[in-house]
Amino acid sequence: MSFHFMIVSHLLLILHKKYRSLCLNLRNSHLVALSSLSQLNDSLSQLYKDLISFKLHVDWMIDARVNMSLPVSPKTLEVAKGLHNLSSFCSTALQQTACPLPQISIPSFPTQLKAWDVALLSYEIPERLRFYCQWSTRVLLLLRSKVQRL
Q1: TM segments (predicted)?
Q2: Which CATH number fits the domain that encloses residue 69?
Q3: Per-residue b/e over 52-74, b at no fewer than 16 CB within 10 Å?
């Protein structure tokens, strides 16, 4: 199995788990019924960490394409902007609840990739992340209403 397929597989597994978790939480109304500020802060902190992690991956992918003189697709730029906006919104929500921003560990990225590897990575990941951004937006809107009631 080539290196880029391992990266894609790993990211898609993470995305699938996060997407499934968000769907279940929304369907079961767990996020709406958060009973304490601690649970709210935990949810916001985890969402913030996930958003920043995905943003770092997309930024790395954009840099890799630029360094190889490959064009960056509008979808990728849209996802990068969406992740930035969502992480800013989540950061604001954390500050409103007087919760410190969680520490983010910066992942290590491969340094020697072929143009084909980068092209394959940058095709699948932005499409999947777009759906994650849409669900994250819904979660943040639900959490915002919870923050405003505190």
Answers
A1: none
A2: 1.20.1250
A3: bbbbbbbeebbebbeeeeeebee
